[in-house]
Amino acid sequence: QLQLVESGGGLVQAGGSLRLSCAASGRTVSNLGMGWFRQAPGKEREFVAGIAWWVSTTGYADFVQGRFTISRDNAKNIVYLQMNNLKPEDTAVYYCAADSTELVRIRTFPSSYDYWGQGTQVTVSS
Description:
The chain has no helices and eleven strands. By secondary structure, it is mainly β. The strands form two sheets. Strands 2, 4, 5, 6, 9, 10 and 11 form a seven-stranded mixed β-sheet that branches. The radius of gyration is 13 Å and the shape is globular.
């Protein structure tokens, strides 16, 4: 059974950076499509970034605008989300998710993902 545990969230000032980590156990992340989502209070969960299984293609939501980078360390079985130039509107709980069925595409709907972590809070002050 795959388990995902996020870490790295916290409080940061606008313009600052955070690196989120998603540690996986039970399966190797190199054999999974991985995604980061976020959910702000009163809003739906939304796609942030993803990395495909087969060719490690990456994809990002439009609002990222080059500020975030998703990557994975296969040796450590960890997926990262490096977030730079953070804005107050980036404040949300960030979730790591795994897509065990899609080989190539990066899927952006939460319902496409099979496994989820518990989330980590990111708060950006102005």
